[in-house]
Design goal:
Number of domains: 1
Shape: globular
Helix content: over 70%
Number of helices: 14
Order of helices and strands: HHHHHHHHHHHHHH
Number of strands: 0
Oligomer: single chain
């Protein structure tokens, strides 16, 4: 585990340093100094809407949870924002998802339901990203001739197909549980079967899934507009259609478990893809740094909640309060 994290840190450092060297540190600094704060402020306002819509998505997915186990909205919001904050310092997006699952479980939500809500939330987010990336190919058809881009899209589509099979196919779910029981032992098989049962409950909740998918596509649009505002702040003179074509592909790159939280891979993707639109490497690198920094800024409210509020109540305390 530590070796894997060290390797990702090394990859992040190498990619970041190499891309910065290609772009030119002096040129990047010169581009960043010209940033217009009015456009950065507009991007920050979009982040507020982005986070609110993300929180709504997850809370909507908790609707199938039995009322006796459903925590107050205030408690769920705290878990959401704290997990996004802590996920900033954990490897990949999976770390934040694990924090959210554990936090929800501490609020008396069964582990299977907690895991399922976080898994489906992540799944629908990736599906929305894939939909936007495929739509982007209509705006930038030359991306379809890039082997790396197509490999990323095909890989993402494959992951989405497997996840959808576990949710909607009873036979696929049973096969997955059986394999886990056979190759991972009885205890792991039981855990996997419980998790799959939690996912299967969403097979009959298609209206909820459609609403959350629509909200997920809305989140992707907001992130593209955030990048556009940051580009305008750097006086990058490309139309918004370029951002709709390129940002969804970059967001898929950020999800790859190569580095830590997209460091290095994000910069490389921005520089390589925006070069297709005639953007200078220094401007693209500065844009990538601002884009990542914007995500960190959006996670800061969770840090404040983590610092000033008590942590989630133990399950026994919660259950006692429920009985009163």
């Amino acid at each position: 585990m530590r070796i894997g994290r060290l390797l990702r840190l090394l990859a992040a450092g190498v990619l970041l340093g190499w891309t910065l060297w290609l772009a030119g540190p002096a040129e990047v600094w010169g581009a960043a100094r010209q940033a217009r704060w009015s456009w950065i402020g507009a991007a920050l306002l979009l982040v507020v809407v982005d986070r609110a819509l993300n929180a709504y998505r997850w809370i909507a997915l908790l609707a199938p949870t039995p009322g006796a186990h459903r925590p107050p909205v205030r408690a769920m919001l705290r878990v959401f924002f704290v997990s996004t904050y802590l996920g900033t310092f954990l490897p990949g997006s999976v770390g934040g998802d694990a924090v959210r699952t554990i936090g929800l479980n501490r609020l008396n939500v069964p582990a299977a339901d907690a895991f399922a809500s976080v898994f489906v939330d992540r799944f629908l987010g990736i599906v929305a990203n894939l939909v936007m990336a495929l739509a982007g190919l209509l705006l930038a058809g030359d991306l379809a001739r890039d082997p790396a881009v197509m490999a990323g899209l095909v890989g993402t589509a494959g992951v989405c197909a497997v996840a959808a099979a576990f949710i909607f196919s009873r036979h696929a779910a049973a096969a997955g549980s059986g394999l886990a029981h056979r190759f991972s032992g009885r205890r792991s098989g039981r855990i996997t079967r419980t998790a799959v049962d939690g996912l299967r409950q969403y097979a009959s909740k298609r209206p909820v899934l459609l609403v959350v998918l629509a909200a997920s596509i809305g989140v992707q649009v907001l992130r593209i507009l955030q990048a556009y505002c940051l580009g305008r702040s750097l006086q990058i003179g490309v139309p918004v259609s370029v951002y709709f074509a390129l940002i969804p592909v970059i967001l898929i790159v950020i999800l790859l478990p190569i580095s830590v939280n997209g460091l290095g891979t994000t910069q490389l993707a921005f520089v390589a893809l925006f070069a297709r639109a005639g953007v200078e490497p220094a401007d693209a690198f500065a844009l990538s740094v601002l884009f990542l920094a914007l995500g960190v800024a959006g996670n800061l409210p969770g840090g404040i909640l983590y610092a000033i509020q008590p942590r989630e109540e133990p399950r026994a305390t919660w259950q006692r309060r429920q009985r009163q």
